Amino acid sequence: MAQPRLQPSMDLVQLQDGERVSYLEINYAVPRRGLSPKHNATNDSLTFALLLDLRIYRDQTLWATKTWKLIETIAANASQDSHNEWLDALRYVLDAPGRYHAVLRLLDLHRPEHADSAEASLATRAFSATSLEVSDVILATDIRKAVSGTASALNKNGYEIHANPQLLFGATQPMLFYYFEAYNLNTALRSDSYKSYWHIENENGEKVAGLDGSYRTKKRLHQSSIEMGMASISALPTGVFTFVYGLADSAKNPLALRRKKLFVYQGAPPTPAVAPSSLNMLAQLQEQELDEEFNRMQHITQPEDKKLYLSLNNAEAKREYLSSLWESHKPEDYAAGISFRQVYLSRARYAETQFPSALRPGWKGDRGRVYILYGPPSHVERETSNPNTKPYEIWRYDDLQGGVIFVFADRTGFKNYELVHSTHRDELQNPDWERSISSGSGSNFGR
Question: How many domains is the chain built from?
Fold first, then answer.
């Protein structure tokens, strides 16, 4: 029988304190349902004991470590609440911007062989001292007034914030609470008021009806402010969404916006103790459909994967291998319970219809590949053909590696937009890309 999992979750955010010092906040949660408590018959209580080890890397170099124990005794009947969890926050002063990656490992002290881990990453930035800025957002299951006189890591600016580090909402958590901060209001704003703003976008970057724009007018009173609110996401289907938030002026023009991915699962909650088998999602596919699905995975598979797959001679073996591929290629920022396969194939279907060319299906082209791997861009700039240049598009991703662009050009005239330049560290880079798409340049037809 499979061992139950501890299923920890973790989320990283960057904020500033009252002295304008930037800090990294790590919100983490551990459900008690996966732990093995020790029962005390004398007072009918349960004692939970965890050993935790945290390692934080900045740009792949070990930056901070912490090892500690969590021991808590509660009434036995309190553990029956399936949402009962350990929720805590850790904070570290940031001495320099960079990409921070945190790894949290847990060990159940009452069952030493029972261990699990969680990982999360965040690209931090240097906050401006004069321009309008908004912090990262904390998505939460509840925000309430903090009890006066109590000290808790969950308290912030007079409020108790129950973060949802799993970033998973839906049937069991239909209300989304949010908290973020705004800085340099007096320095950057001329008006005495501004609007706090948010909306939710679907996986294709389209605003969701009913959640397509909430504006709240606020007085500018201080140099910084806290922005909080809530939204019902009960009508959202299962899938991946983006929470877009920030500040706008009186005419609803955005002044500072940021984004954060969230996940919605509207089905029955999965069995908490054991992770569901990913084979279930492939059980209904025939062999030809399995072959087509593997073909669409070409943007994440390697030549050796193809060689092994082609050596399989029955549908069941192909199902098992596809299942292992989806699991092994799942990015670290996908929350538990959300199928990477579902997101990938949904993007592929969208790319097939939106980016067709005379040479290949839309999902096979460069625009399709980038859309499938990185999702919808934050902004798209399109330039139609003119006497000096061939048609091209610039896709901007504000939240990827601190902000990157992808430039695609139709150098053949068949709507076959090829990637000619990107600032993404793992993609083609050609700073002289504008010369390559001038009308006098040759094409790379058949590349």
Answer: 3
